[in-house]
TrEMBL record:
EC number: 1.1.1.2
Domain Enoyl reductase (ER) residues, every copy: 10-340
InterPro entries: ADH-like_C, ADH-like_N, ADH_Zn_CS, CAD-like, ER, GroES-like_sf, NAD(P)-bd_dom_sf
Origin species: Nonomuraea roseoviolacea subsp. carminata
Record protein name field: alcohol dehydrogenase (NADP(+))
GO MF term set: oxidoreductase activity
CDD domains reported for this sequence: CAD1 (cd05283)
Protein family (similarity comment): Belongs to the zinc-containing alcohol dehydrogenase family.
Length: 346
């Protein structure tokens, strides 16, 4: 099946309309008619080659929602017409200890990313800036009624990437949580941490988005461009979720943690970060990382968001504005996720 898509022809070149081939629907596959696809900063890192060489042409997009158009004969959990989503992975070995524990994202054989990966049938995966995709049923999530479909798209990456560490490190009543960076991931982290009952603080470069941050659920908002912030908040937080796509001064943020506090990096800049171990030793602090979440946990997150009526704050765009959206994301000018209306793909 040949379908319309938007692809990067080479590293750092503007994306352009194209046509890609989707495999025939196998026994355990689902054909999804994609309605909306979110633009994640990871799409931009990947297209630009920040994380290493990539296969081109490359169709990004791992925040996919749509409607089931066809299912293979062995598929029981999705039916034609169901509202479904696909996130950052489309397969994993299913047998290793991590897969069996529900942590498919940490598959010991390597999970198959939704784009620029090699699928288990040997083909290169192409992502969601496209009208249709064929995905193994085990990696297709149900989008609950009550969630707006376009606003649900960013949950498939920004939502789960923030939900998972917030759950893992126990965000909830009585916990002080800081979110660094108020972009796509950051704004979902604020909404979710607030819904979990934590006391939430936004640490943004400036106070430009303060009103938004408080509306999204933050209790406090500080500018990291103001050196006083790091003195005033020293030793304050139980958990800091860093969503920044660029280098940060790790020691400065570790200094904001209470004893036993954790700074978890979900932001994935290309350049290495360094730290002074005394920032950890001096208060038994931890520095951690976290990647998306497992399939069952992603469904749990979607159900949690439906229960709490949480979608992303989105700016819906037509496909011909993808390159402009990339520029705006790079300039931290996103409020708070661009979502592509795939009906405009041609
Ligand atoms: P985004 O929408 O661009 O948000 C990043 C935010 O970081 C910006 O809005 C800005 O917030 C802040 N920021 C940007 N440049 C900065 C700089 N030079 N110094 C300080 N702050 C800066 O990006 P996103 O889609 O949320 O993704 C964020 C990062 O997470 C990316 O690196 C992405 O690849 C990564 N990611 C990781 C996972 C995972 O599984 N771990 C999953 C998805 C994405 P303020 O304007 O408020 O300061
Ligand atoms: Zn993403």
């Amino acid at each position: 099946m040949r379908v319309h898509a938007y692809a990067a022809p080479a590293a750092a070149e503007p994306l352009a309309p194209t046509v890609v081939e989707r495999r025939a629907v196998g026994p355990n596959d689902v054909l999804i008619e994609i309605k909306y696809a979110g633009i994640c900063h990871s799409d931009i890192h990947t297209v630009n080659g920040d994380w290493g060489p990539q296969p081109y042409p490359l169709v990004p997009g791992h925040e996919i929602v749509g409607v089931v158009a066809e299912v293979g004969p062995a598929v029981t959990r999705h039916r034609v017409g169901d509202r479904v989503g696909v996130g950052c992975m489309v397969n994993s070995c299913g047998r290793c200890a991590n897969c069996r524990a529900g942590d498919e994202q940490y598959c010991l054989e390597g999970m198959v990313p939704t784009y620029a990966g090699t699928d288990r049938d040997g083909t290169i995966t192409q992502g969601g800036y496209s009208t249709h995709v064929v995905v193994d049923a085990g990696f297709v999530l149900s989008v609950p009624e009550g969630l707006d479909l376009a606003a649900a798209a960013p949950l498939l990456c920004a939502g789960i990437t923030t939900y998972s560490p917030l759950r893992h490190w126990g965000a909830g009543p009585g916990k002080k949580v800081a979110v660094v960076g108020l972009g796509g991931l950051g704004h979902m982290a604020v909404k979710i941490a607030h819904a979990m009952g934590a006391e939430v603080t936004v640490l943004s470069q400036s106070l430009k988005k303060q009103e938004d941050g408080l509306r999204l659920g933050a209790d406090h908002y500080y500018a990291t461009g103001d050196p006083d912030t790091f003195e005033r908040l020293a030793g304050r937080f139980d958990l800091i979720v860093n969503t920044v796509s660029a280098r940060i001064d790790v020691d400065a943020y570790l200094g904001l943690l209470a004893v036993d506090g954790t700074l978890v990096n979900v932001g994935a800049p290309a350049e290495p970060l360094s730290l002074n171990v005394f920032s950890l030793i001096s208060a038994r602090r931890s520095y951690a990382g976290s990647m998306i979440g497992g399939i069952a946990e992603t469904q749990e997150m979607l159900d949690f968001c439906a229960e709490h009526r949480l979608g992303a704050d989105i700016e819906l765009i037509s496909a011909d504005r993808i390159n402009e959206a990339y520029e705006r994301v790079l300039a931290s000018d996103v409020r708070y996720r661009f979502v592509i209306d795939t009906a405009t793909l041609g």
